[in-house]
Amino acid sequence: MIKAVVKTIALLAILFVMLYVGMNNIHAVDFHFPLAGTTSKQPLRASAALIYFGMFAVGLLAGTILAVGGGGGGKGKPAKAK
Fold first, then answer.
1. Within a domain: 32
2. 3-state helix, strand, coil in the chain (%, to 5)
3. How far is the CA of 61 from the CAs of 9, 12, 23, 38, in angstroms?
4. Can you tell me the distance from the alpha carbon of 39 to that of 27, in angstroms, rounded to the nearest whole number?
5. pLDDT by residue for the chain (82 residues), tens digit each?
6. Which end of the chain is less packed: N or C, by CB atoms within 10 Å?
7. pTM of this structure
């Protein structure tokens, strides 16, 4: 129970930081990410808060997928006892 409350408080703190960044970074910026290929010639132009949120969302999804795992890898039949 305590673990869930601590995780919820941590998530709320992260969301507060995102809200704070969004309120104070309303100017448009150019986003360059040459490894993606499309932004090497023409960068994305969006508000800094929107780009920050997008990077946060990608990181959160990647972390969730890594934490939960693909499943099925080590869940075979249990060994028979002799």
1. yes
2. 55, 10, 35
3. 19, 17, 23, 22
4. 19
5. 888 888 888 888 888 887 887 788 788 888 887 776 777 778 888 888 788 888 888 888 888 888 887 665 555 556 666 6
6. C
7. 0.57
